[in-house]
Amino acid sequence: MLRRLGIVVFVLAIAAWPVAAQVQSSAQGKARAEQETAAAAQAGKKSAQLASGSTFEAELAKAVDAKKVKAGDQVEARTRKDVKSEGEVIIPKKSKLLGRVTEAKARGKGEAESESRLGIAFDRAITPKGEEIPLNVVIQAIAAAETAASAAARHDEMAAPAPALGAARPAGSGAASGGLVGGVTSTVGSTVGAVGQTAGAVTGNVAGAVDSTVQAGTQPLGAGLAGVLNSNSTGVIGLQGLRLQSEGSNQTQGSLIVSSDKNVRLESGTRFLLRAEAEKAQPQAKQ
What we know:
The protein has helices at 2-43, 146-159, 164-167, 170-185, 188-217; strands at residues 55-60, 64-65, 74-79, 83-85, 88-91, 96-105, 116-126, 132-134, 137-143, 235-237, 243-250, 254-259, 265-266, 271-276. The chain is α+β, with helices and mostly antiparallel strands. The strands form three sheets. Strands 1, 3, 6, 7, 8, 9, 10, 11, 12 and 14 form a ten-stranded mixed beta sheet that branches. Strands 2-13 form a two-stranded antiparallel ribbon.
């Protein structure tokens, strides 16, 4: 009897062995797949980081209006060119920059002291290949969309008065001389009229030149031609009524755009100059 029982147990053990082996193999395969997935996800994140203080340009993908958004809403921009650090491309051209609204406040009606506020913080980039790159950046400057800036530049060129030197060409002097000669041959009154006309033209040219100089002096520093951003640009360029509060900008509060006379609205295509910041060390817990 015991012998038969032993045989039965032996047969059952042999029959169960393939099943146990298959279960073990399946478990190992699952664990290996999870490890590979984690490794792939880790490989999808670039280890290289932007050097602190380096700047690069981005373009807003969709309009953001302080009157319509709320804290936590996503903000998306795109890089305008390759972003490099020490000769290495860290963020390729046309990568997505993803961030969030940190603060949104519309300007109250009839409130003289009320101001509109819009806070934005970008925290990661997604390359065209799907690689994710963490970011720690603040907004150093904001400029109008390039098309609007170009149109404004063309308008300024058309409206600009003629240069002072150009207005005082020899042709003008010739007219004055002619007036003098005519005055000698005819009447003294003609001479006085010619001199007065010449003096008036010179005065107008000088005033125009001064006005042109004053207008040029009001352009934001670092704006460049047609609102072109560069690494020295700061503040708001080409967007009237807005100002950028850079003090205290960080990943938690974001960079703050403020207006005292209208709601803050950034149109699609608005350009940002972003500056990389050093990661702040986390305070150690007290023992």
